[in-house]
């Protein structure tokens, strides 16, 4: 497995991130992490709301400094307390201290805002995160499940006020759910952010798990078309469907770092095989065309205008874009 820089930082992170939300057995957790590390993986993703995940990691991770540990806050710690959730300073401070105790560590490599909180000013969140970075309890920060305009505003404020900016964005992304291509992915690329993507297998639909974890009766025609296309490409390349589905997400942008979950060692061994799979261009095109997707307005409209002489003159098609 190769490594990439996390956003515009010097932190080296592996091409695939290990998601720990579904691991519920400490012994199996240790084996999964060992198999992931043996393949070169070094990023562990968890959250304060993932049940016993943080505590389990705190118990089984022996070589703590060899791993990049990311956890999240926002979700409620106490349903009866209105201040036990949200992105405000009080919840951040208390959630972070709780996570540090559970993880048995003095610092978190990446601290993620778990979801946008409409009631907390973004200035308060960014300043509180920066204070925690300056205190040495957090090394880098990221944001999950938020609109592109919120993230853009947050990072612009950070730039203006010399606060720590978001280096990472976490979003769902797979062949069946490409919404992030409209605004979030271009925004992240423009800010130089890494994008850790969850659900690359669409809850098992794209991995061939139908009948085991996915009820066939619940599948739509769109689901079936995507699964069939993934299976066809996998058969042609002699690899597993899960590897094709994960590799597809990586093919769309160098910023993408898929989160691969596993509850058994065999699953993580299969999934990390996607790191060595580079899909041919024709395979990517075949997968793209298997299910309908449109950027919609303004993406499609702008793309049409870029080659229109009425908009950009007679030389509209002679301008080469700056390489990204």
TrEMBL record:
Keywords: Oxidoreductase. It comes from the Bacteria. Gene3D superfamilies: NADP-dependent oxidoreductase domain (3.20.20.100). It comes from Saccharopolyspora shandongensis. GO terms for cellular component: cytosol. The keyword Oxidoreductase applies. Residues 16-291 form the NADP-dependent oxidoreductase domain. This is Predicted oxidoreductase. InterPro entries: AKR, AKR_Detox_Biosynth, NAD(P)_OxRdtase_dom_sf, NADP_OxRdtase_dom. CDD domains: AKR_AKR9A_9B. One of its GO terms (molecular function) is oxidoreductase activity.
């Amino acid at each position: 497995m190769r490594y990439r820089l996390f956003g515009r930082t010097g932190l080296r992170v592996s091409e695939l991130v290990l998601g720990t939300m579904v691991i519920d057995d400490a012994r199996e957790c240790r084996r999964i992490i060992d198999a992931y590390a043996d393949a070169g993986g070094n990023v562990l993703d968890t959250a304060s709301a993932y049940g016993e995940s943080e505590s389990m990691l705190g118990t089984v991770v022996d070589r703590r400094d060899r791993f990049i540990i990311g956890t999240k806050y926002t979700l409620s710690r106490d349903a009866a307390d209105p201040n036990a959730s949200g992105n405000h300073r009080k919840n951040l401070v208390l959630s972070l201290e709780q996570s540090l105790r559970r993880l048995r560590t003095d610092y978190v490599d990446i601290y993620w805002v778990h979801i946008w909180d409409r009631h907390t000013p973004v200035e308060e969140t960014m300043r509180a995160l920066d204070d925690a970075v300056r205190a040495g309890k957090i090394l880098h920060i990221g944001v999950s499940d938020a609109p592109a305009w919120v993230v853009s505003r947050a990072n612009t404020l950070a730039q203006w006020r010399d606060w720590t900016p978001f280096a990472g964005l976490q979003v769902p992304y797979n062949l069946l759910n490409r919404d992030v291509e409209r605004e979030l992915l271009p925004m992240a690329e423009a800010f130089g952010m890494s994008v850790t993507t969850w659900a690359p297998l669409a809850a098992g639909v794209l991995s061939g798990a139908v009948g085991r974890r996915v009820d066939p009766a619940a599948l739509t025609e769109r689901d079936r078309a995507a699964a069939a296309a993934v299976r066809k490409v996998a058969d042609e390349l002699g690899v597993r469907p899960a590897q094709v589905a994960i590799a597809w997400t990586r093919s769309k942008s160098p910023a993408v770092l898929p989160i691969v979950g596993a509850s058994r060692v065999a699953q993580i061994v299969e999934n990390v095989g996607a790191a060595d799979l580079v899909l041919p261009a024709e395979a990517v095109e075949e997968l793209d065309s298997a299910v309908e997707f449109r950027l919609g307005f303004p993406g499609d409209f702008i793309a049409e205008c870029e080659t229109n002489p009425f908009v950009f003159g007679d030389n509209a098609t002679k301008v080469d874009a700056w390489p990204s």
